[in-house]
Amino acid sequence: MNKNLMALMLALTSMSLSCVAAEVKVCVYDPEIVMSQSKELAGLASEIDKKYQKQFDSLKKEEETLRDEASKLQAKASVMNELARENEQESLVRRKRDLDTRAERVLEDYKRERQKVSMRFLQKLEQGIGEFAQAQSYDLVLPKGPGVYALARADQTSALVTHMNKKFDETKKTLTAAPITVAKK
Questions:
Q1: Does the predicted TM-score (pTM) go above 0.90?
Q2: Mean pLDDT in the chain?
Q3: What per-residue string of b and e applies to 50-64 under the rule 16 or more CB within 10 Å gives b?
Q4: Which of 3, 69, 113, 179 has the CA that lies 20 to 30 A from 152?
């Protein structure tokens, strides 16, 4: 069994024993929903998508060009001498291999950048959960998942999404409202 899950179960068990003396306020949230409804994460993902869209479009256009050239080669192959046909085929194969390699690299870079953004968001989410818990007087906030059962009334996913989006909107307003000054030398 996962050590973290076991530690959590022990902590919850000890809390349930101590709940006789004091009430513990607990809630759960769905991390997938929080991430999918986050304005901040959606905005960052959109920026990355825009950044890579030109590269994806260029690769697609190059692939279409290669396909057209292959079709033209196939159409005129019967009237070409064997050496010329083989040279053109080899050239097309080399260019296709190069295109595939570049496409893989761009896709890997794109995924890596999306992953970095997701990780940064998760760090902000952790901070936001702490703020949310303090504001709502929660003693314990757990992500939904295997081994975690909670009544529907304990699910605070919607409230956490609202909190995170409100925090993002406030930060965005602060950044856009602050005048930018350039120091003169």
A1: no
A2: 86
A3: eebeebeeebeebee
A4: 3
